[in-house]
Amino acid sequence: MNSSYSHKTIQPDISLSICGYSKVLEIVSNKWTALVVYAMEDGVIRYGEIRRRIEGISKKMLTQTLRQLERNGLVKRVITPSVPPIVEYSLTGLGESLLEPMRTLNQWTKENYSLVEQARENYDRDNSGE
């Protein structure tokens, strides 16, 4: 038995409402968010080019994702008056600072996702009779 265990009521020390980490995960954990950020990692890009680069993203989802990123200070939108207007997007400094942790997670995925898949297969096989 753990000697530090106490019979007192333990207060939660992890909270979705006040934990900054969980709030940031809420922003960046959407699959489209990560892909849109990656699409902008080389600099200024137009809406149509982002859409062409990301397989399977709808216009509605791309628009919602860009608005969310802009609202959270990760993306800058510039409209150049013309007919039709030219709309360009780029990462802000804050958005660019997100690239390194995303690259680290991407590298972890490349190195470990096959192990995750194997664990799932093992779990499903071992628990198929429950």
Automatic annotation (TrEMBL):
Residues 19-117 form the HTH hxlR-type domain. Transmembrane segments: none annotated. PROSITE patterns: HTH_HXLR (PS51118). Gene3D superfamilies: Winged helix-like DNA-binding domain superfamily/Winged helix DNA-binding domain. Keywords: DNA-binding, Transcription, Transcription regulation. One of its GO terms (molecular function) is DNA binding. It comes from the Bacteria. It holds the Pfam family HxlR. InterPro entries: HTH_HxlR, WH-like_DNA-bd_sf, WH_DNA-bd_sf. PANTHER family: TRANSCRIPTIONAL REGULATOR, MARR FAMILY (PTHR33204), TRANSCRIPTIONAL REGULATORY PROTEIN (PTHR33204:SF18). This is HxlR family transcriptional regulator. The lineage of its organism: Bacteria, Bacillati, Bacillota, Bacilli, Bacillales.
